[in-house]
Amino acid sequence: MTSQVSSPAEQADGADSTLVGEQRKPAGVKEVQRLDRVIIRFAGDSGDGMQLTGDRFTSETASFGNDLSTLPNFPAEIRAPAGTLPGVSSFQLHFADHDILTPGDAPNVLVAMNPAALKANIADVPRGAEIIVNTDEFTKRALQKVGYAASPLDDGSLDGYSLHRVPLTTLTVEALKEFGLTRKEAERSKNMFALGLLSWMYHRPTEGTEKFLTSKFAKRPEIAAANIAAFRAGWNFGETTEDFAVSYEVAPAAAAFPAGTYRNISGNLALSYGLVAASRQADLPLFLGSYPITPASDILHELSRHKNFGVRTFQAEDEIAGIGAALGAAFGGSLAVTTTSGPGVALKSETIGLAVSLELPLLVLDIQRGGPSTGLPTKTEQADLLQAMFGRNGEAPVPIVAPCTPADCFDAAIEAARIALTYRTPVMLLSDGYLANGSEPWRIPDVDELPDLTVQFAQGPNHTLDDGSEVFWPYKRDPQTLARPWAVPGTPGLEHRIGGIEKQDGTGNISYDPANHDFMVRTRQAKIDGIDVPDLEVDDPHGARTLVLGWGSTFGPITAAVRRLRASGESIAQAHLRHLNPFPRNLGAVLKRYDRVVIPEMNLGQLATLVRAKYLVDAHSYNQVNGMPFKAEQLATALKEAIDG
Fold first, then answer.
1. Which pLDDT score, from 0 to 100, does residue 645 have?
2. Tens of pLDDT along 258-297?
3. Which of helix, strand or coil describes residue 552?
4. N or C end of the chain, less CB within 10 A?
5. How would DSSP label each residue in 181-196?
6. Torsion of CA 267, 277, 402, 103, to 10 degrees
7. Phi-psi region for residue 265, left (φ > 0), alpha (ψ -120 to 50) or beta?
8. How far apart are alpha carbons 523 and 501 in whole angstroms?
9. HSE (CB half, 13 Å, CA atoms) of 644?
């Protein structure tokens, strides 16, 4: 996972470097300071390539062996007006030589490509941090567009920061003169110049980015060469300019990772790989019926690349068609999946109820975002929990699984598939935009570590009538799981009726009998209640009186906050739920052990509502619904107040 770090110049001439105490001085040129962690935020117009820049810096950081966590943040508009605050796109990366859990509360370095990027992000930057600005964009018109009466570069408002004025656009255009590009074409490479500069500052590897650019622009080699030249020019600028007298080194996080092969992975990519792995472990074809919606679309894009693994993807005309096709594929014997976000779940709710009635395995992946209605398409929230629990007509219980980190999305997808296949039920998986777009190192598992998900389809009659004849009953249940047989259409002798009208127990025939309906409703609920889920694990090394309980993507900020409190001598326990329906069987007993239970959520208290109702525990909510994940310091303060209270 690690690679040798050297500048393009060192790669060319083989210059060596010396290690002196805590500082490495490459060929005696500039001072190198060693840091244990750094938080960098790239910010610019949505057309400036900030997501690509952040992604490339992240990839090289992962290959170097640092632990990392990222927070992409981009506008919902396809193309907001250039240079405006709504059009600002940013990418934050936290990397370290030790185990970390969040993208960081505040950046140590802000790269601002224009005045809008500076204004939108300066409130998050602590005094003393480094700010690198593209001075070419600080024109009078650009400043007025975002409400600056005078340039912040000259009015003293940035005196408390380490300000680096870099004419990124001019330097990029100058570096690309020989390529014969128009000025507009050359300016597009300024993000690569910035990436080169930051790669020099933090001793990131360069080979991967150059290979990436060569591959990305394979059909336009002149553009590839120009971007590589801009990238190298940025590195060389850092090496030669007097404005950057110091570079920084963050050692690999060797002790943070168990032995294995690692790669950087986002939540949506991990979900995609988890679905493919589940289909292979179940020996079933994978079918995805989906309609594009932010922030779930990347799963459709990724799975469409894996036809070689028996994956079929269907981009439907709407949400209802997508889940309808998926449910049809489940009836036909596939591992069936549909992906969406909160608004799409609302549209799919009737078909989810049909899947409950038919008792077929179906995975519904809800990548949550800010609501209601269209809400905040590119911002994160975890406010669909009650919709997942109750958002269907009638009594239609559905298991709910929630991953806690981007890498954990892989395991959560496999767990959701296990439940769906074992218990013949639709399963809701609740990820969110923070997990979907964020990334972290992921240890690639060996195949023999994955669970066996093989399913036995019904092959023949399973019931004997009073007259001795053998028949197939589609709703005759497994006594342990209460799952009904999975009969693939076309199997001789297994013809049976399906549809949304209530079924008769055993035969599956249409039934309006009140007693039968009561029995079927209670049986479907008992099947979900009886799902085998692991007991809740509690991290409580000091016998605390306060428990912080979380679910989903709050895991990182909660754990970081708990670590801060324990480091300052406080005693606090932590537990995190993966299974939200059914809850772990020991949850009630765990909650009763503590005087205070605090539940931080990116909603107005949905898990707290469920916990209060089911366990009669006076759980205290700590809520945030601003489209961004919790900050560790913010949570630590709230939890300290709970401990003292």
1. 85
2. 999 999 999 999 999 999 999 999 999 999 999 999 999 9
3. helix
4. C
5. --HHHHHTTHHHHHHH
6. -20
7. beta
8. 16
9. 8
User: Tell me, what DSSP letter sits at residue 503?
Assistant: B
Burial readout 31-69 (b: 16 or more C-beta within 10 A, e: otherwise): ebeeeebbbbbbbbbbebbbbbbbbbbbbbbbbbbbbbb
Give the integer Cα–Cα distance in Å for 507 and 251. Answer: 65
Assess contact for 645 and 620: CB atoms under 8 A: no
- Max distance between CA atoms of the chain, in angstroms, equals 96
Sign of the Cα torsion 291, 293, 296, 301 reads positive
Of 503, 225, 479, which Cα lies nearest the Cα of 359? 503
351-386: b (≥16 Cβ within 10 Å) or e: bbbbbbbbbbbbbbbbbbbbbeeebbbbbbbbbbbe
Measured CA to CA, the distance from residue 331 to residue 324 in angstroms comes to 11
Q: Which sign, positive or negative, has the C-alpha torsion 338, 341, 342, 346?
A: negative
95 pairs with which residues across the strands? Answer: 38, 68
**538-539/573-577 β-pairing:** antiparallel
CB of 227 closer than 8 Å to CB of 52: no
User: Which residues partner with 287 through β-bridges?
Assistant: 312, 336
| Tokens matching residue 524 | 């479907």
What tokens appear for 299 in the block?
């799963």
SS3 at position 509: coil
At 42, which amino acid appears? F
Residue 498, token pair as written in the block: 């399906």
Q: Provide the token pair at 375.
A: 């809400």
CA distance 190 to 106: 25
Q: Is residue 281 within 8 Å of 410, Cβ to Cβ?
A: no
> What is the block-wise mean pLDDT of the chain (645 residues), using blocks of 10 residues?
36 33 48 96 94 97 96 87 93 97 97 98 97 97 96 96 97 95 94 97 95 95 95 96 94 91 97 98 98 98 97 98 98 98 98 98 98 96 98 98 98 98 98 98 96 97 95 97 96 92 96 98 98 98 97 98 97 98 98 98 98 97 97 97 94
Task: Return the structure tokens found at 87.
Answer: 């059009």
381 in Cβ contact with 370 (< 8 Å) = yes
Q: Are strands 88-96 and 37-45 parallel, antiparallel or unpaired?
A: antiparallel
